[in-house]
Specification:
nine-stranded mixed sheet; alpha/beta; binds fe (ii) ion; 20 helices
């Protein structure tokens, strides 16, 4: 009989569920994709239903239901923090209390009730309910699915229970803790403080700060080291808490922080200034320095050849790229769902390997995440049924004809919504729910930003590149299947700016073509690379091959299939809606091809932009 284990993360940010069968990851998905509410933190009832459906089982077939952290210890942290700062912080303490008292402390019975209502299961038939530890869930999600037999593991995030940074050594199915840094000293929260201060949303706008950094100068680095963080040679650190407000207040920074950087935080959506860019660059460089030092220390202590990363800070792919290039490790593997959603994977795998004592198998071509294609898929028949019911004109083509046609359309400058196979788990789309375009087209970046994503135009797009061609374009010659490594575009592909262009600064730099693949080259000549592998995504690989045959270029633009503030599309219906609301020219749903010019406008959909909260 097979052993099924369900891991769940919820009630904080980006809820998710993951099902494993005898240690094999069968399914994983974030709740937001089903409810269409970005970073939905509610109990992931839809994601759980999906996982059970994919596994062909019901709740009663589960051996364990594992929650990814321990709410009681989190509560202890909240209380101790309050006591330490009392009477400061009473407002935020009182604001947090009702939720804690009502939901989080009674989590066991809350979870039981949720499960009972999910499929009418009797309470006594429920699987055993377990609670993992936040950083152990991250560490397990980084190590167990990695391709390594043994590795050092580094987890960095905002905060879980107490740990904000943790170091581990993994060997076989053993994952042993080495040391931790505790709240309130947190690299994730430091970065989030700058995210807040530069006018972006905490817990989601961090990647915007990273994207903004190359426009700025690192002029505040000294101010950060002198005032905000006491960084030791070994990478461990303490924050100077009197500049921050997250222990006691409802914001991240305070008046003292404003004074240090010469003014209040930028108002969300207001104009970005050079100061914001300089702040972004400064905190980015400090973060990279901390990441590098911690990685080196862990190497010194363990002698490990491989490093695994997880926790929200591991989504900082610029920092990851530097660890790869400058750090002492031979290999680096990063959990594609490095944030808290990925805790669901780690929680389930911890129960299998630690509690059940089962060994790891290394059967995967690259790793056990299966390219992170762990979400729902739809058959051509389901797609056709939907399109016929919508009365949407389409053509069904076989693979070879379809790939050839789409390659031709991309070459002619068309933007394509590309929907096929199983939805990606984690924040990046990797060729199953993607919007794609020609990376050589100098207009592509601004058209995609303004007419498709309806967002700020400073952010670069990411390239998908054939694995075997990556070194022809970038200073990288290894796998980067999850778009979590940034590397420079090769010098021979770069275009030197003219004298006039050299005088530009800030956002104006964006429109200067910087290479022969300008749509994916950032202002500092870097790119956030996804290597495409035939072993994990054959159809996307074949499409890229067809494009290369026609254009001579093995790189296309790949951005997530959504408009600004919208969760990435999950179903054909979501994809069709997004296609109709944006300037995407062509939609591919499995083997069905739709042209925008053939479609009738959506009726009564004029107010759709109000549907999504600003991210
Ligand atoms: Fe976390």
């Amino acid at each position: 009989m097979k052993t099924y284990i369900l891991g769940v993360s919820a009630y904080y940010h980006d809820s998710a569920a993951c099902l494993i069968r005898d240690g094999d990851i069968v399914a994983a998905a974030q709740e937001e994709r089903f409810t269409r509410k970005k970073f939905d933190a509610r109990f992931p009832i839809n994601a759980i239903r999906y996982c059970l459906r994919e596994g062909g089982i019901s709740l009663a077939d589960l051996k364990y239901f594992v929650f990814y952290d321990k709410p009681l210890i989190k509560f202890e942290r909240l209380l101790e923090t309050y006591v330490a700062f009392s009477p400061k912080g009473i407002k935020s303490f009182l604001a947090a209390m009702p939720v804690w008292l009502k939901e989080k402390l009674l989590l066991k019975s809350v979870l039981q009730n949720e499960l009972v209502s999910l499929d009418g299961i009797k309470k006594r038939a429920l699987p055993s309910l377990l609670f993992g530890e936040h950083h152990e869930s991250h560490a397990a999600s980084a190590f167990y699915p990695s391709p390594f037999k043994s590795a050092a593991v580094l987890c960095m995030d905002g905060v879980g229970e107490w740990a904000t940074t943790s170091a581990w050594i993994g060997d076989g199915n053993n994952l042993t803790p080495l040391w931790e840094i505790h709240f309130p000293h947190s690299l994730g929260l430091l970065y989030s403080a700058f995210t807040y201060y530069t006018g972006f949303k905490v817990n989601s706008g961090e990647y915007k700060v990273m994207g903004l950094a190359p426009y700025g100068k690192p002029k505040y680095i000294k101010a950060i080291y002198d005032n905000l963080i006491d960084l030791k040679e070994d990478g461990t650190f303490r924050l100077k808490i009197d500049y921050f407000n997250y222990c006691t207040g409802l914001t991240m920074t305070n008046g003292k922080f404003d004074e240090l950087f010469g003014g209040p935080p930028r108002k969300p959506e207001s104009l970005l200034t050079q100061r914001d860019m300089d702040l972004a660059r400064s905190i980015q460089e400090v973060t990279e320095e901390v990441m590098l030092r911690l990685a080196r220390t862990l190497h010194r202590e363990t002698g490990a050849e491989n490093l695994c990363l997880a926790g929200g800070v591991a989504l900082n792919c610029v920092g990851n790229g530097r660890i790869l290039r400058e750090g002492p490790y031979k290999e680096l593997w990063i959990q594609p769902s490095a944030g808290d959603a990925g805790g669901a994977v780690g929680a389930a795998l911890t129960a299998w390997h630690k509690l059940e004592g089962k060994s790891r198998s290394f059967a995967g071509v690259m790793d056990a995440m299966k390219g992170s294609f762990l979400g729902p898929s739809y058959t051509n028949e389901e797609v056709e049924q939907f399109l016929q019911q919508k009365e949407a004109p389409y053509k069904r083509l076989n693979d070879e004809v379809l790939f050839d046609r789409i390659a031709e359309e991309l070459v002619s400058g068309k933007i394509v919504g590309w929907f096929q196979g199983r939805m990606e788990f984690g924040p990046r789309t990797l060729g199953c729910r993607s919007i794609i375009g020609d990376a050589r087209d100098p207009r592509m970046q601004s058209v995609m930003n303004l007419k498709i994503k309806y967002r700020e135009s400073f952010r670069p797009f990411a390239p998908s590149v054939l694995r075997e061609r990556v070194a022809d374009y970038f200073a990288l010659d290894r796998d980067s299947p999850y778009m979590l490594l940034v590397a420079p575009v090769l010098e021979k592909r770069r275009i030197e700016p003219t004298k006039d262009q050299q005088l530009l600064w800030g956002i104006d730099l964006l429109n200067v073509p910087r290479s022969d693949i300008p749509a994916v080259t950032h202002v500092d000549y870097s790119a956030r690379i996804q290597t495409v592998h035939k072993e994990t995504n054959l159809r996307y690989y074949k499409l890229l091959k067809a494009f290369e045959e026609k254009s001579g270029c093995a790189v296309i633009v790949n951005t997530s299939f959504n408009v600004r503030n919208e969760p990435i599309v999950c179903s054909p219906e979501d994809a069709y809606r997004c296609f109709m609301r944006s300037a995407i020219d062509i939609l591919v749903l499995e083997n069905c091809l739709l042209y925008k010019t053939d479609q009738k406008p959506l009726q009564g959909d004029d107010n759709w932009q109000k549907e999504f909260e600003l991210d």
